[in-house]
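hiii, so i know i said id send this last week but things got crazy w the move. better late than never?? heres the sequnce for the chain we talked about at the cafe, plus the structure i predicted for it. fair warning i was half asleep when i ran it
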Amino acid sequence: MRSTPLQRSRLFLLALTAMLILTACRPEDTLDITPSPTPTPEPTATPSPTPAPADFVDPYEVNLDVMERLIALLPDPLPAVEEWKRPYEGGEAEVRNIRGIRRPAVGRAIPYGSQQGSRMLLNFVIFSDEAGAAAEFERKHGLRSADVNLAQDDAFPTPNAFGSGLYGSFALFQVDNYFFEVYVEIFTTSISPLAPLASETLRFFENNREAFEASAMSAAEEDG
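okay and structure toks below
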């Protein structure tokens, strides 16, 4: 049975009406995809550093001044079994920084050599207190013990440690807030110059300590 044009028209109207009803009944889309604004934090004021007191004396500057004056007073040449002289380059005597030494401590290594080819270093470290020097003595003692057998020599002020081996000869000392070491890298004489060099270094230190400390302290007080 064929549908008439009138029947097809009615079916079309019914379908169109049903579609409009369904569209009208669909729930409203409430999805909001607009991002919410991110609040901007209020800037915080950077606190101003507290100024140092007018009479403040920087301990690093004091130690540095003491070290410079100590080095200026070192004997050149230094007699100990043979004659030790400081190497010069461009008119200036060589001075090296000691690695691992942090402010306010100051550490310097001063090379010496002999005409016969011997080489050694005088290593000085100045701390602001005795505890720092004692800690450095223990630290260096542990490092050197890995290379040579160290032992205390009762003929010298304590604490001290002496040792010799394939990696050189060492004499370690702690005196108050100072640590120093005589490190003989190589010697060409028939006997080791370590003990004579240690004696000369201690003698220099004792005889000149008041001079290099007093001048540095007075300069620090004037600056403060």
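btw Strands lie at 78-80, 82-85, 88-89, 92-93, 96-97, 106-114, 119-126, 160-165, 168-175, 178-186. thought thatd interest u
miss u guys!!
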